[in-house]
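Can you give me the bound-state structure? Components:
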Amino acid sequence: MSKPEKLIADGVRLDGRKPDELRPIKIKVGVLNRADGSCYFEFGGNKVIAAVYGPREVHPRHMQKSTSAVVRYRYNMASFSVEERKRPGPDRRSIEVSKVSREALEPVIFQEYFPRSAIDIFVEILQADAGTRTAGINAASIALADAGIPMKSLVSSCAVGKIDDTLVLDLNKDEDNYGQADMPIAMTPEGNITLLQMDGHLSRDEFREALEMAKKGCTAIYEMQKSALMEKYSSQIEGDNNE
Amino acid sequence: MDKKLVIPGDFLSDEVKLAEEGTYVEEGRVYSSVFGIASLKNHIRVVPLSGKYIPRPGDLVIGTVTEVAFSNWIVDIRSPYEGLLHISEFPRRIESTEMSRFIKTGDSIMTIVKDVDSRMKVELTLSDQRTRIIKEGRIVEVTPSKVPRLIGRGGSMIAMLKNETKCNIFIGQNGRVWISGKDKGMDLAVRAVLKIERETHISGLTERISGFLKEEKGEKPKEKDPEVTEEGKEETEFKETMEEVPESTEEEKAQEEKQGGILDELLGDDR
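Here's the bound-state model for the whole set.
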């Protein structure tokens, strides 16, 4: 697709969304049997699976920390996830995304509870449509909770960007390719930011406004993450007190 | 209701002093640290719905020997940390050269966590009446956090299981369940245990399991065919020593003390 004449007209975007509207989200918890925790996450055109293993023994041994767990995050795009075949294996981009995503989740995990162990997070992008790292972080934080790993809170993530001089929430592929700025953000429900990257340019005021938009977006995502987890055990909880 | 499903970060209470496992305190407020079921009565704690077993001193666990090292057996206890059973923790003095004559790689043992240090070095022991080497029966695995529900209030659930299936059932804190008895009983017990694991969070568990057991047994009329299989032979031998094992865990200990314990069993094997 070549650059469209306009990315936003009369407050309506190419895909019919309003500037502050998220793409539809679908979440399923516990989709993998072998993993300790897992999650399937659909974020518009993004389709992502996250799997969490651990805490488990660290291999190779020299990676282990004697006072806390090591968190390892592997972001990987399937070769069929994008239009043009993606060459399989880690590349510069996926190594970076893995690093920043890991750092987005580490602050909420109680790593010191599990010395000399590893918590492995695998995120596979099955279909990509701009914002895969945010989708990956959303999925991974649900998978961590599903694995029973102690955390301060979940982490929610979405992007804000600028297209045709207008700030918009959650860019899609075309907006990302032809827009002026893209800023993925991850935060806890209390609003502590654990990831912030920016590609393009925003003025100081735009940045402030963008942050507010992202906050609203993350809050909306947090509610969906929460209800997805609750849904896994939707049946009535044991009422009597068994000790 | 005093029980509810919570996710990490959910606010639980302002009563910091009552905060227990599965919670964390920040700025005088108690939050959940895991995805699980919170109880707010008397104490604030959250029982996770999944998670790995983290060893604690005094826990009775069921482990599988993965390696016989010099003077240590290395035991998989279904945790991120391996268990070490030192030769001196064997109930009898043995030479390190003949360690694998007594316990070899692949053998399962019921053992007790003697000590866990800050680096999570886990020491196990067999010098306790409750411990033994497992020679027959089956081992099923459940989520470790569900072990209390499997035992039930005052051992009620496990007592019912034992009664209805006519099997001996031992539950390790690490979520391994050792079932031993007749084939049919074991089949039923395994299915019941797995059903309990799946349905722990749904109310009326005990009644449902009781109904399930009755129904399953009702389908097939009670048979008392002595199956002469290899397992059958072992079984009879086993019964002599184990018949009297009562239902509740506390009594179990007392009773077992009267019985031979591990040493006799081992010597019997060795003779």
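A couple of observations. Residues 142 and 244 of chain B are 26 Å apart (CA to CA). Chain B has a mean pLDDT of 82.
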